[in-house]
Amino acid sequence: MPHKHHFLDLDTTYKDAFGDPLLRITFDFEEQDHELVKFMGAKCGEIIKEMGADTVVANTKQGAYEITQYQSTHNTGGVIMGSSPETSAVNNYLQMWDVENLFVVGASAFAHNSGYNPTGTLTAFAYRAAEGIQKYRKNGGGSLV
């Protein structure tokens, strides 16, 4: 779930080759995340054992978030979808507020990532953006909202 203390911002120390600040991710797993791993790991271990596995090693512990290691996450957000340009980067067709002919399709439009495997939602986003692009072309351009 989203928390105000999890956010993206521009790093005040690190810069790219052009001198522009790098994107900084401020995030760590919450107690709820740790409890979920403990519960699901134990439950999966029980199921696998019941299926007849000789050896069961259930993952029931989760450490701190570490961006350099794959931790079964889908890092999302950064180009948030919303209802106004003051609080979001794209409208509900995934059309940029300030660049009308640019549609951003992908998990960057998520305000947060509430779980694993966002494939279904991303597919819905792609269909919504396609609908917006068709509407945009039919209207000869312009903002869709």
Automatic annotation (TrEMBL):
Keyword Flavoprotein included in the entry's annotation: yes
Residue intervals of the Glucose-methanol-choline oxidoreductase C-terminal domain: 9-126
Gene3D superfamilies per the UniProt record, alphabetical: FAD/NAD(P)-binding domain
One Pfam family in the UniProt entry: GMC_oxred_C
Source taxon at top rank: Bacteria
An MF annotation (GO) of this entry: oxidoreductase activity, acting on CH-OH group of donors
SUPFAM superfamilies: FAD/NAD(P)-binding domain
Assigned keywords, A-Z: FAD, Flavoprotein, Oxidoreductase
Family of this protein: Belongs to the GMC oxidoreductase family.
Protein name as it appears in the record: Gluconate 2-dehydrogenase
Lineage: Bacteria, Bacillati, Bacillota, Bacilli, Bacillales
